[in-house]
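A brief tutorial aside. Many learners find it easier to grasp structure tokens once they have seen a single protein encoded end to end. The record that follows does exactly this for Alpha/beta hydrolase. Read the sequence first, then the structure, and try to relate runs of similar tokens to stretches of the chain.
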Amino acid sequence: MQHEPIITKQIPRRGGLCTCPACLRILRRQFRALIARGANDPFFTMEAVTCLQALLPGGETRIFDAGHFALATHAPEISATIHDVFDH
């Protein structure tokens, strides 16, 4: 018999994004951010991206032609994007 990890039962989530009060307080701080998502990611959903965009109004969003492991499969492209966003 398989059991769901305990952490997913304790932390409220919306579209793959943690929505517990402590996380939301951190996210509401004003700082530069890059919201990077793989277009085919079934776990970090567009609903979570939209939520982060609302919480991080100064953040930039980039969608990559990738899945959940975008950093592993598209490292050079994402690395270049990180430098582009944060080197200005």
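Self-check: Strands lie at 13-14, 17-18, 34-38, 60-64. If you spotted this yourself, you are ready for the next section.
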